[in-house]
Each structure stands twice: as C-alpha cells, then as structure tokens.
Amino acid sequence: MASTYSSRLRIELIGTGEQSGIWGDTTNTNLGTLIDEAVAGVASITMSDADYTLTVADGATDQSRKAVLVMAGTLSAARNVICPSSQKVYIVKNSTTGGFSITIKTSAGSGYAVANGTTALVYCDGTDVFLAADITDTTDPTFTGNISLDGAVVVNDSGADKDFRVEGDTDANLIFSDASTDRVGIGTNTPTEKLTVSGNVAVTGTLGVTGDSSLNGAVVINDAGADKDTRIEGDADPNLVFVDASTDKVGIGTNTPTEKLDVSGTAKATTFSGSGASLTNLPLAGIESGSATNGQVLSWNGSAWAPATISTQAFPSGTVMLFGQTSAPTGWTKDTTNYNNSALRVVTGAAGTGGTADFTTVFTSRTPAGSVSSSFSSGSTSSVTATGSVAVSGGSVGATTLATTQIPSHNHTINFVASSFALTAGANSIGASSSGSTGSTGGGGSHTHTFTTPTATFTGNSHSHTVSGTVTSSFTGTAMDFAVKYVDVIRASKD
Q1: 0.85 exceeded by the pTM?
Q2: What pLDDT is stored for residue 495 in this prediction?
Q3: Fewer CB within 10 Å, N- or C-terminus of the chain?
C-alpha cells in the first residue's frame, strides 16, 4: 500500500509494509522537519507589491506549514496572502512598508486583514481564515502591583501615532506624550509646544533654554525672597537686565546698580509720572517749574517752560498714503491685496474705483484683429465713344508660276509668211501667205498665292468712364478693452 499524506500538515503516512529499511528517514523528516516547522518554524517572505500564494508541498518543507509568517516588502496597496484551504493556525506579522494591510485568506474566502505594523494570531477552519487574537495590544493594560524595569525602556518603538500617558493621584495627564504632534504635556493632554506645562514649575538648579520660551501666566523669580540675583543677557551685553537681590536694585547695562533703577546708557520713555521734584542734574534749569496737562508738552520759550498742545501722532491710524518705494516705511503696512496693477485717476468729486483690465494688459503693444467687408450696389458707367485712326502698312501677294494643268484650256493662232518655196514636182502649190492654229492645251485647275500679313497700328485718344453708385463697408473685429483698472485719488494739502 502506497504512502498517503495528512490533510492538515501534509505529513507522509507510510503505507502498511512500505519503506522497509528506510522508514526511519521518513519518520525523521516528519518529526524533525515537518512537525518542527509546524510548531516553531518561521517563514520570512518578501512580497513584490502583489498578492502572494504560500508554497505547498506534501512530505517536504514549505511556507504554508510554518507556524509564523513574517511578511516584508514595499506595498503600494493592500495585498492578499493565500494559504491552503486546510485547518491550520498561523501567527502573521505585517512588516511591510507603505502603510497597507495584508489579508491572510484562502483562495475562496474573505480572510482577516492584518494592519501594517501589527501581529495577529489567526486560524483557518478549512474554508476561510479568522482572527484568534490580536497579538499587538491596542488596549490599555492595567497593572495592580509595582513594575520593576532593569533596562532601557522605549515606548512606541515603531514610531506609530500612539500616545503615551502617565496618571497621577488626581491628575489624569500628569505626563502626556502626543505622538501625532511630537509634543509632551505636563498636566495637559493638548500640548502646544515641545513641552507644555499646565501648572507651576520649580527649578532648584540651573535652567538652560536654547530656544524661544513662551510664558502665558505670571512669572515670579526668587519667590522665597533669598539673596539670589537675576541676570538677562543680550546679544552683546551680559548685563542687559540685572537684579541685585542683596541691594534690591535693578541695573540696565550694569551689574552694580547704585539706584533703584540704574541705566548705563541712554534711557527713553514715552511717559513719566510724578512731579519730578527730586530730579537733579538736568541739562536745562527750571524744568521743575513748568506744568502741563494731558496732551501737552513743555516748550522752552527762552525764559521759561510753557505748555504746548501737540498732536499725539503725525498721521491718524488708518491714514492711506502713496509711497514711491517697494517696502512700507516704519510704522506703515503695505497693502498687498487691493488695486494691484491699477492706474491712478485724479478726481475733484467722490473718490472710487473702476475698470476691469490690468494696467500692463491695456497699455501694451496690441494689433486690432478683424476684417472689412464691402459691397457695391445701384451703379452704372457712362457711355464714351473712342476716336482715332488705323494705319496699315506692308503686306504682299507672292508670285506663282502656273503649271499647264492650272492654265485654262486654249490654243494659239499661227500666221505663216512664205518668202520662197522650192516645190517638188507633183506637189500642191502654196500661196505666199497662210494661217493655222496650234492644238488646245491647259486644264483649268486652281492655284494659290502666298500672302504676307500687313502691319496695322491704331492711334487714338484716351478717355475715361464715370461710375456712380453706392459702396457699403463694415468692419468686424475683436474689441480692444481699454477699461483699465483705476483708483481715484484727490489732491489735498494739510492745514
């Protein structure tokens, strides 16, 4: 009896009386290779951006018998992994790149989709594949006891969008790592910066900040009232702001302030309050004797300080002016939205805007395009008689010699005059003169003559014709849009 193979793992089943002397090799293959692979074998498979069918072999190693399937490769879409339609348990790990799922299924089943970056325990019932357990834990684990970690701890090692949160006794977001924004919150689950702290921060050592810092709440430095100085450095000034805690004095540009506020440099202020009675060493004497109300300044009139009213600003906010430069002056904002590529129109009435075409579109080299159609009707020409003379010169008829056949039939008369005759005895006698005729000749045929054409010239007078009637013409073409966009401005002088 020949060997057969099991339906699930395709292990060779030796027939009765078969493989005498070699059955041990088959048994070793079954136990040491096939069953070993089914229990602990790992198949590492690289997909080629297409559906993949696992290899199947009876009594020999194959992919579909392995316990673990690690799928790799770069995918541009979700793909299928086809397994045999036989009962089997698989651990499937989706290690492909591209962010797409892979579906482990039979050829006729719908299967189970394993998300990218996750691992699933699935089983085939002989017809289709189903999820047994999602080995990638997406739920929140709960620990009732202490956890001791004696090594490095990496949270979210795959770099997925998985948040990390540590609760306190009463704070649900004592530490919150927002994976989608790569930010950390202390006391908040909506951090807006790399580190956002909702609450007070206490620093007992040195706090180093290399980037920008944003503080939205009250800041108290040296809250304990200890002898701890505070110093703020500038780009080139190491004592841009210096608070001397031991003397309760503040220095600007100096770390040895001698007054409550000691400025080493020029001080500028828009408003001073108080009478100024204690001010000393002022450059102009008598300043303390002047007084002014809100909106006034003191002006030295040569002998005393007198109040003078001035405008708080040269131009009210919202004033619109024109500047012949690319960037707006300091204190002004360039309008980059309205009236681009428009002309200016000076008006004496109400100011407004108009036009639809850009300035550079209207005023450029353009050729009118179109056609002219003309028609003539109801016309006539006047009658004119031509005058002149024709002169003919030259021309001749060529001579022709007539042949006998061309001459009319005729004969000729002949007159004979005898001067002497010698008569022979017995002949007739002839008179002194006699006449006769020749025989007829000529055939009366036709004949031709050559003719040389004469030269004829006409000499006449020039003349003209008068035409009367109606000509109608029309032009059809493309309209040229001269409706240039414009902005009305007025001319005004400041009072």
Answers
A1: no
A2: 53
A3: C
Give the DSSP letter of residue 192: -
Q: Which domain holds residue 249?
A: 226-267
Average pLDDT value over all residues in the chain: 80
90, 118, 95: which is closest to 105 by C-alpha?
90
Task: Say if CB 439 and CB 404 are below 8 A apart.
Answer: no
Q: Which of 63-89 are b and which e, b meaning 16 or more Cβ less than 10 Å from the residue's Cβ?
A: bbbbbebbbebebeebbbbbbbbbebe
353 found inside a domain: yes
| Whether 41 and 183 share a structural domain | no
Residue 403 in any domain: the answer is no
| Alpha carbon distance 364, 341 (integer Å) | 13
Least Cα distance to 225 among 248, 259, 207 occurs for 248
How far CA 17 is from CA of 14, 26, 158, 418, in Å, comes to 8, 14, 56, 174
- Residue 406 in domain: no
DSSP string, 12-27: EEPPTT-STTTHHHHH
Cβ pair 464, 322 in contact under 8 A: no
23 φ, ψ (degrees, to nearest 5): -60, -25
Count of structural domains within the chain: 4
Q: For 297-336, how does the pLDDT look when each residue is reduced to its tens digit (9 = 90+)? A: 777 777 777 777 765 556 778 788 887 778 888 888 888 8
Give the closest residue to 54 by CA, choosing from 10, 79, 62.
Answer: 62
| DSSP codes, 284-322 | STTGGG----TTEEEEE-SSSEEEEE--SSSS-TT----
How far apart are the C-alpha atoms of 424 and 427, rounded to whole Å?
6
Distance CA 444, CA 154 (A): 144
A 10 A CB-CB count for 254 gives 17
CA-wise closest residue to 345 among 335, 334, 333, 359: 359
Residue whose pair of structure tokens reads 């088959």 in the numeric block: 26
| 52 within 8 A of 45, measured Cβ to Cβ | yes
